[in-house]
Design brief:
alpha+beta; 5-stranded antiparallel beta sheet; 9 helices
Length: about 375
């Protein structure tokens, strides 16, 4: 019988990779998580809204619909057990015009189909009673939505992996893998001390590097690797008192949920992200985008004063659809897709990937037959 160095190697120590490592470690497997950066969560996981999504919008039967709702439930419970700070503040999806009311009806029906708890339709008066600064003609409320400390969450996952006898190995880029006769993989890892190790199972969850990682796995069919698109979103931070206690979302835009408001864990108001497809990993925030943000925000918060928004940060989402294309589902490709037993390759894990992360870990385990 083959002796493996680890039962599982996970590529990528963002929220999803760490959640996969945690889930597999809880099943009694030895896990090594390889991370090319010098710290965990430095990619997509460090540049998002830290929103816990309810699961309202995603198509019936999709992985996003199922894993977001299941992941949210698991996430709050995990945060409770590990003392990770969160604020289940709730979210209002607002109709800015009469034309938006029909869109809210569709979202409400989808949320009910997706088994999202506590959803309700609000009149204008009911919405303004909750958030007096708001401008809308009606709204939906999702009481299970919230915000949380995603870095503390990832640190807790890392701690659980190590407590189970696993390792999170930093500054160690994945450089390729070769399937072994009889099952398992030989994995090549770089860094200051390049090494080769063997594992029974391989999970790739490296976010923006997913396509490049898959291309270095011997026997992985190049034709099924989806094209990567960089979906850049920028954020502006509000100076002064946060105007709303709850998350405020206009109806979604094509390809994303659109620019929204949140009060972060420090109590400050933040707006974003917008969506622009870009060709490079450019995390700069153009102050020239401020006028468009002011105009957009004033549709639901007409009291926004001049001069109170400042450029904050940018994130880039690993989209597997381009401009004008329908937003696809998560891809968790197992052997039935690529033909390599023991491998699950993740692609297009953008929103609601953070909320879904623990459920993604469970789904990966199932697809590995564990």
């Amino acid at each position: 019988m083959v002796e493996f160095d680890f039962d599982v190697v996970v590529v990528g120590a963002g929220a999803v990779g760490l959640a996969c490592g945690y889930t597999l470690g809880q099943r009694g497997l030895t896990v090594a998580v390889l991370e090319k950066d010098a710290a965990i969560g430095q990619g997509v996981s460090s540049r998002n809204s830290e929103v816990v999504h309810g699961g309202l919008y995603y198509p019936t039967g999709s992985l996003k619909a199922r894993l977001c709702v299941e992941g949210r439930r698991r996430l709050y419970a995990f945060c409770d057990r590990h003392h990770v700070e969160y604020d289940r503040c709730g979210k209002l999806v607002v109709a800015e015009s009469e034309a938006d009311l029909a869109r809210l009806e569709i979202i409400m029906a989808q949320a009910q189909t997706n088994d999202v708890e506590g959803m309700a339709v609000l009149t204008k008066a009911q919405a303004l009673a909750l958030e007096p600064e708001l401008a809308c003609v009606g709204a939906l409320i999702s009481p299970q939505s919230g915000v949380f400390d995603s870095h503390a969450y990832m640190l807790a996952l890392e701690g659980e992996i190590e407590a189970a006898g696993g390792a999170v190995v930093l500054s160690t880029p994945f450089e390729g893998a070769t399937p072994l006769e009889g099952g398992g993989f030989e994995v090549r890892a770089g860094g200051a001390e390049p090494t080769v190790l063997t594992c029974r199972y391989l999970v790739t969850a490296p976010g923006l590097s997913a396509q490049g990682v898959a291309a270095t796995i011997e026997g992985f069919p190049a034709a099924i690797i989806p094209k990567l698109h960089f979906g850049k979103g920028i954020y502006f931070r509000l100076s002064g008192k946060a105007p709303f206690a709850r998350l405020i979302y206009p109806p979604p835009i094509p390809g994303a949920l659109g620019t929204h408001y949140r009060r972060d864990m420090g109590g400050q108001g933040v707006f974003g992200p917008d969506l622009n497809f870009v060709d490079t990993l450019d995390y700069s925030v153009d102050p020239g985008a401020a006028p468009a943000f002011y105009a957009y925000i004033r549709k639901f918060w007409p009291g926004l004063p001049d001069g109170v928004l400042s450029p904050d940060y940018a994130g880039i989402r690993p989209k597997i659809h381009g401009p004008g294309e329908t937003q696809p589902d998560f891809r968790l490709d197992g052997a039935d897709v690529h033909g390599l037993p023991g491998l699950v390759a993740l692609f297009g894990i953008e929103s609601p990937g953070l909320t879904s992360s623990l459920a993604i870990g469970e789904e990966v385990a199932v697809r590995l037959g564990l």
